[in-house]
TrEMBL record:
Main enzyme class: ligase
Record PANTHER family: BLL7292 PROTEIN (PTHR48095:SF5), PYRUVATE CARBOXYLASE SUBUNIT A (PTHR48095)
Protein name stated in the entry: acetyl-CoA carboxylase
Pathway stated in the Swiss-Prot or TrEMBL entry: Lipid metabolism; malonyl-CoA biosynthesis; malonyl-CoA from acetyl-CoA: step 1/1
Domain CoA carboxyltransferase C-terminal, first and last residues per copy: 852-1087
UniProt-listed InterPro entries: ACC_Biotin_Carboxylase, AcCoA_carboxyl_beta, ATP-grasp, ATP_grasp_subdomain_1, BC-like_N, Biotin_BS, Biotin_carboxylation_dom, Biotin_COase_C
Any single Pfam family the record assigns to this protein: Carboxyl_trans
Length: 1092
């Protein structure tokens, strides 16, 4: 293999390898070849992994399992402490985490991989698909955002079989093929759970399934100077359950025309994002059409199967990647994009895993100790592994044992596959079950030998007997099991005649024998205890009878299936289970009783003094509010045992009494379950407890908030937040901090914007950090008498701004007029009811509804075009009864925003109020509309505009409010709006203001219709006449005659701008009977496709 290890005169560099196993060893070897130093890391349960010996320095990680390798803070700290200047993530773990890559760069570490921006784009599968669409590269039909079960079902109805895929990550997790509608819902939920566990994101999307497709991927390499090249392609078609098993380079039986098209598409995509480092762009090739291919995803990292590319090109791409990271160009490394020699022959990689297959064909990891591990050797054979004889398989990590790579220069793929089969036969792996035989069976299939394969082939023929382990294969090593047969014979010979073996069901150390020779035992009786995986496992008898022999002793290591007892079977009345005493399910064990006692201290019944004080103020307790909000019996509490971080200054008993739940009750529940199904009624709840340190935010309190916000983000849960409290809490002496400005609560809460609807409620005082969360919410509700401000009286005084009482700061009558408070209510009882109503619009449609006689709309607009009317009364008639919920009523009086329902369907509503500035749009009104459009757009709620405006407000005073910028932003937000909009012109539709009430153009909405009272013009009629006929009017010296001309011109313009004339020019879609307005809205809603 060509070495890129020149430049040895350069100063030694140091690299942290943020991975484990065979890939860590591979990176360490490339690092050493360049003369660099390497630092390897290992978790507490990974100390026996061979990779820890392969670096120049070996540093232990705190923690066990994969979580320790995902601990970015710890990895960066180790890299800095060991003076590393580079960090290589390998594959998996943090390799596609854009935030981690950004943090590395911020800490002065060179992340060996693409730029964080590229990782962010290509690590998101849908963003990558959008990139392909922008570059006119074919993609499969599919949803283009986080997808619901309902949307997936609709897609299946339209397109047939589909693939469910995780939005993030890879490796075959969170992916299922759906061939019939009945299996969709169960598999969808399973994929979401699997993706959430693997990648921290349970979002899914679906795409069209190609029944006979090949999986082709292109290896891309780019440098930081803008040069990009391909290193040919790989074929990854042979998969089981979407897990790659065998990879080949180059792709066999691929025409040069298709190969060139796929390679060029990959290069085009890479160039469009200025790709640097290693990366893979993946495509499906439709075998049925023999030529159509589709981009499916990109992997901005090193791939497991990079080995076959190395073997056929002769390039050490790990060394190349490191050189690119230090700034070398491709040309300096001998890579000329237009002159890379085509590969000669084939390379094949097989993944040898420690696994078995269950009855459904799903792989199951196998554990145990590798008593023998001998890998294949010989010309054309390469093995990448971290396994060795004596290694105990760790179930906390991937089951990959070894990658077997073979290379032949033959032009026939069958020759490479034959070498792979022989190399597999040369492997000697004992002590742990593997998929070796399965791979051997696979290589002997005629379809594989001539490489007429497709991605679903293995799954389709599983169970046909063609993969049975009973096939006899060549083996080039002795089995230690044969050599141990004598010991097995001795065991059998020593067993008393006529007895039955009672075997162990688990491997481990025998810590207790619970029976004795000569004792009569019953089936199901406890006979022994074995310690394994830090747990004690009870072994029960499988037969009844007399114990005649115990061939094992306490402290010995027992293998699964090894004899523990020899029993002479006999009829013993009953079983061990049948002879147990009657179980009392009402009995409470001491450990449970301790928990129940502790939890009871958090309840209102244990805090009578705090409850009485709360009630005296006319307020409810936090738990009373939550009980009123949530459906009965559905609330489960997170972090109930938390207490204030003040153990160094107070006793534990005192803290339990003073700070139950650390002043914050959090959990999950169902809200509005009587209206919606279990999925739609999901909700998260957070509530500061003002009776605990005045609802202030303590250290544990913040930790609880962050934990629940993480759950909210991952599960996309609606959120109701009771925010009453005084902000940050001083005196948290247990936490080592100076200012605590590194906490994530406020950023994390703000990042939920557009992901989960957030409804905030406050009653009483809400200051500082509590107010910041209140203000960051999508809908804010406050009770009469509340005070809301970014600093309380103490902060104001400390800032030298004077002495004020809490009541002087941010009173609710001010905060409603300036738009901070969306909805003002009487008390917490009404606040909770309004919160449930507000939440319902995000939860979906309801079944039961009623409405007013719609003929009343015919007289809602006065015949006198100059007379105002009550827009809210009109809305109440139009909408379902009691469905109108207005937001920010006292702010921006000329613009009405809120939610309504039409036959139970939820809509956002934006209307002009003609009683304020005649409906003209001022700066505050534009702001109000912008915020509401964003809210509806974020949560897929269609918007209904009721237009009655003479246009944007004009004049010197309004321009002082920044109207120009805000009017422009209103058009921008309307243009960016993805939800359907509908516009009904009630009366005036003039100029830019009217266009803004229709998404920027009368032809932007699904429909723009008018009532007969509608009148239109490029600007207000009177202004148009005074401007357009200024000369003619000025020439008439008689005032009465001038007025007559003016009136005549106004009337002519009015007639010209009437709705029916406007419709005749097709500038609007229709003029309708006002009583038909709901009919039009419903038809528009029904016309919206289910999958957007």
């Amino acid at each position: 293999m060509e070495e890129i290890a020149a430049h040895s005169h350069m100063a030694s560099k140091k690299l942290l390898i943020a991975n484990r196993g065979e890939v860590a060893i591979r990176i360490a070897r490339a690092t050493a070849a360049l003369g660099w130093e390497s630092v390897v890391v290992f978790s507490e349960d990974d100390a026996d992994s061979k990779h820890r010996l392969c670096g120049d320095y070996s540093i232990p990680l705190k923690g066990s399992g994969s979580h320790s390798y995902l601990d970015g803070d710890q990895l960066i700290r180790i890299a800095k402490e060991t003076h590393c200047s580079f960090l290589h993530p390998g594959y998996g773990f943090l390799s596609e985490n854009a935030e981690f890559a950004e943090r590395c760069l911020a800490e002065g570490l060179q992340f060996v991989g693409p730029s964080p921006q590229v990782v962010k784009i290509l690590g998101d599968k849908l963003e990558a698909i959008r990139l392909a669409e922008q570059n006119s590269i074919p993609v499969l039909a599919g949803t283009r955002g986080p997808t619901t079960i309902g949307q997936a079902k609709n897609f299946f109805v339209q397109h047939g079989a589909l693939m469910i895929k995780a939005l993030s990550g890879g490796g075959g997790r969170g992916i299922r093929r759906i061939r019939n509608l009945e299996q969709l819902e169960e598999d969808f939920l399973r994929c979401s759970s699997e993706a959430n566990a693997a990648f921290g994101n349970g979002d899914l999307y679906v795409e069209q399934f190609l029944p006979r497709a090949r999986h082709i991927e292109v290896q891309i390499v780019g440098d930081v100077h803008g040069e990009i090249a391909h290193l040919w392609e790989r074929d990854c078609t042979l998969q089981r359950r979407n897990q790659k098993l065998i990879e080949v380079s180059p792709a066999p039986n691929l025409s040069s025309e298709i190969r060139d098209q796929i390679l060029n598409s990959a290069l085009q995509l890479a160039r469009s994002v200025q790709y640097s480092s290693l990366g893979t762009f993946e495509f499906l090739l439709d075998e049925e059409t023999k030529g159509r291919f589709y981009f499916i995803e990109a992997n901005p990292r090193l791939q497991v199967e990079h080995t076959v590319t190395e073997q056929v090109t002769g390039i050490d791409i790990l060394q190349m990647q490191l050189r690119i990271a230090e700034g070398q160009s491709l040309k300096n490394l001998g890579i000329w994009p237009d002159a890379i020699a085509p590969p000669a022959g084939f390379a094949v990689q097989l993944r040898i895993n420690a696994e078995t297959f269950d009855q459904t064909g799903n792989p199951q990891p196998s554990t145990g100790k590798l008593s023998v591990f001998e890998s294949a050797t010989g010309p054309g054979i390469r093995v990448d592994t971290s396994a060795y004889s004596g290694y105990v398989m760790n179930p906390n990590f991937d089951s990959l044992l070894a990658k077997l790579i073979v290379r032949t220069k033959s032009s026939h793929i069958s020759d490479a596959l034959a070498l792979a089969y022989r190399a597999l036969s040369d492997f000697n792996i004992q002590g742990v079950k593997t998929n070796k035989t399965f791979l051997q069976n696979l290589l002997l299939l005629p379809e594989v030998e001539n490489y007429s394969v497709y991605t679903g082939m293995i799954d389709e023929i599983s169970g046909s007997g063609r993969f049975e382990d009973s096939k006899i294969h060549k083996e080039f090593s002795f089995s230690s099991d044969k050599n141990d047969s004598s010991s097995k014979a001795v065991e059998i010979n020593e067993a008393p005649l006529g007895t039955l073996q009672v075997p162990s069901s688990i491997s481990g150390r025998l810590t207790e024998i619970c029976v004795a020779v000569g004792e009569v035992i019953r089936k199901g009786q406890k006979i022994a205890i074995i310690s394994a995986m830090k747990m004690e496992h009870v072994i029960n008898a499988e037969v009844s009878g007399l114990v005649e022999m115990i061939p094992v002793s306490i402290g010995s290591v027992i293998a699964s299936g090894q004899s523990l007892l020899y029993v002479r079977p006999s009829d013993v009345t009953g079983s061990a289970l049948e002879n147990r005493d009657e179980i009392d399910f009402d009995s409470i064990r001491p450990d449970l009783q301790n928990l129940l006692n502790r939890l009871s201290l958090n309840e209102d019944s244990s805090r009578s003094q705090a409850v009485a004080k709360r009630h005296k103020r006319g307020q409810r307790t936090v738990r009373e509010n939550i009980a009123d909000l949530c459906d009965p019996g559905t609330f489960v509490e997170y972090g109930a045992l938390a207490i204030a971080a003040q153990r160094r200054r107070r006793s534990l008993d005192e803290l339990i009494k003073l700070s139950p739940a650390d002043g914050l009750v959090t959990g999950l529940a169902s809200v509005n379950g009587s209206l919606f199904d279990r999925h739609k009624s999901r909700c998260a709840v957070l509530a500061y407890d003002y009776t605990v340190f005045m609802g202030t935010q303590g250290a544990m309190n913040h930790k609880k908030t962050d934990r629940l916000l993480q759950v909210v983000k991952e599960l996309r849960l609606p959120l109701v937040f009771f925010t009453e409290g005084g902000g940050g809490r001083p005196g948290e002496v247990d936490m080592p901090a100076v200012a605590g400005l590194d906490l994530h609560t406020f950023r994390q809460y703000a990042s939920l914007k557009g992901i989960a609807p957030r409804i905030a409620i406050t009653s009483g005082r809400c200051f500082a950090g509590n107010a910041a969360l209140f203000g960051s919410s999508d809908i804010t509700i406050a009770t009469q008498g509340s005070n809301i401000g970014m600093g309380g009286p103490v902060m104001v005084k400390g800032g030298g701004l004077g002495n004020f009482s809490a009541e002087d700061i941010g009173p609710v009558d001010i905060q409603t007029k300036n738009g901070v408070v969306d909805i003002l209510v009487k008390d917490e009882v009404e606040a909770v009811q309004i919160a449930k109503k507000a939440l319902s619009y995000f939860q979906g449609n309801i079944i039961n509804f009623s409405c007013s006689d719609q003929r009343a709309l015919r007289i809602a607009i006065p015949e006198n075009r100059l007379r105002s009317y009550d827009i809210r009364s009109l809305i109440e008639i139009l909408a379902d009864a009691d469905s109108f919920l207005e937001l920010r009523q006292q702010f921006a009086l000329g613009m009405v925003t809120g939610f309504i329902r039409i036959e139970g369907r939820a809509l956002g509503l934006i209307a002009n109020d003609p009683t304020h500035l005649a409906g003209a749009i001022d700066a505050e009104g534009a702001d109000k509309a912008i915020d509401f459009i964003k809210l509806c757009n974020s949560f897929n709620i269609p918007i209904l505009f009721l237009c009655d405006t003479p246009g944007f407000m004009v004049g010197p005073e309004v321009e002082k409010r920044g109207l120009v910028r805000k009017a422009g932003r209103l058009f921008e937000e309307s243009a960016a709006c993805k939800v359907p909009i509908f516009t009904v012109v009630l009366r005036k539709g003039y100029g830019l203001g009217a266009m803004a009430m229709a998404g920027g153009s009368f032809h932007a909405p699904v429909f723009t219709i008018s009532w007969p009272s509608g009148e239109f013009g490029a600007m207000g009629i009177e202004g148009e006449i005074r401007t357009g006929f200024q000369k003619e009017l000025a020439e008439i010296t008689d005032w009465n005659e001038r007025q007559k001309l003016f009136d005549r011109l106004v009337n002519e313009a009015y007639e010209r701008g009437k709705a029916m004339n406007m419709a005749s020019y097709l500038e609007i879609d229709a003029v309708i009977d006002p009583a038909d307005s709901r009919k039009w809205i419903l038809r528009g809603l029904d016309s919206i496709p289910k999958v957007l």
